[in-house]
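Bug report (template v2)

What were you trying to do?
Predict the complex of my protein with flavin-adenine dinucleotide.

What happened?
Run completed; filing so the output is reviewed.

Input:
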Amino acid sequence: MFKQSAQHVHSYYAQTYPQPLPLRPFLQGSHQVDVLIIGGGFSGLHTALRLAQTGQRVVLLEASRLAWAASGRNGGQALLGWSCDMGPLECGLGLARARQLWDSMVWSSEELRELPARHGFDVDYRLGSLWAAVRESRVAQLREAQQEARSKWGDEQVRFIDRDELGQWIDSPRYRAALYDPRGAHLNPLKLAQGLAGAIEQAGGQLFEQSQVLGYRRDGSGFVARTAQGEVSCQVLVLACNAYLDGLDRRIASRVLPVGSYQVATEPLNPALAQSLLPRNSCVIDNQFVPDYFRLTPDHRLLFGGGCTYLGGIPKDVAQATRPYLERAFPQLKGVALDYAWGGHIDISMKRTPDVGRDGQCYWLQGFSGHGVLPTLAAARAVSDAIGGDSQLLDLYQALDNPRFPGGRWLAAPLEAAGKAWYRLRDVI
Ligand SMILES: Cc1cc2nc3c(=O)[nH]c(=O)nc-3n(C[C@H](O)[C@H](O)[C@H](O)COP(=O)(O)OP(=O)(O)OC[C@H]3O[C@@H](n4cnc5c(N)ncnc54)[C@H](O)[C@@H]3O)c2cc1C
């Protein structure tokens, strides 16, 4: 549905990357491996690293550049939890099994904190995240979430911050209260993807860029996938294509819908002004149905995301579309120059639950629904463990019901957009 281009979009991350981004070769000729991974975002890269480290022969094929899509363009907020929150997971799995998933999320946050140092790269990692309420009526949601975190998930770490204290965290008239999670974090996602790529190569995995898989077929007990100039035979196939899977596997793709999401980066601000906006340098996301999310970068910019398009398109002028949201949160930035503005696609599932599973030796990871920095790592662990013979975590994901969108992708998008208009309305009344 959406075409990959050969180069990164004009994002803050790609444009300010400290050195020229290395270009891996494209696939040529025939290759034979244990595991082929299609898609070079976080899902594919984390899976590849975990498998290469256990001695599997791994090839990863990326249609464009590594982390060209959501993984190289996101807000960089590594927040604990899934897009759907824990309710649907508890509903689908029961309390005890949902708790196992939650524990794997806590593991992911610890793993992501340690990964860069373990492999010798830097991602501008900063600890601390806030989940903020805009509406008085949704302050109660924060209190309930904190209470539930304690009683159901054994989580004592999140702290409620009331309006009086909130000024020490966010200099904005918009927010009433927040939950602070000291394990949440923010980072530069393109640096993370490049660091993972280097670690995969060090572990013996092979990465190919500008190598779009045009199709795959079953071949004996394995698979053969082909690109324009090469093919790979493998025993195990991993589909990590996010919102771009439809050309390859329509059945699996029918459970997610591409939604456009976008953000901006301001010009570098006076350091004192930048610090005054978010004095503790936490990242922030609000609890509106369509949330605003923002954070500071090490070069004192505000990186701000807000708004989304359910029909999958990206506004022609992302800066103009996003500015009102930014100035609503921070009126003191009225008229600030926006140096970079870009968009990407998130892969929403019907219930916003992750869609991770297997059919024989074909595995897939998708449905992160706009919240994937940590969930992709948790899912990659489940998939790589299962490939290694331990399917305990993958079984949890597979027990979740992820229905197809009714009406196929073309009808589903307008229906979903209409339904969501109601929730957006509830954000403002
Ligand atoms: C604007 C934006 C902001 C976001 N902000 C946050 C945030 O702050 N925090 C958070 O947790 N999440 C955020 N997300 C979501 C998060 O980025 C994603 O959930 C996550 O990156 C998904 O990773 P992925 O590897 O599954 O998919 P992707 O990163 O989309 O990677 C899929 C890759 O597969 C490749 N591919 C597809 N088809 C083929 C093929 N046939 N052959 C070869 N390669 C193929 C694509 O080119 C692409 O590179 C945001 C997303 C967007 C778009």
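What did the reviewer find?
The chain has one domain: 12-418. Residues 12-418 form a domain with the FAD/NAD(P)-binding domain fold (CATH 3.50.50.60).
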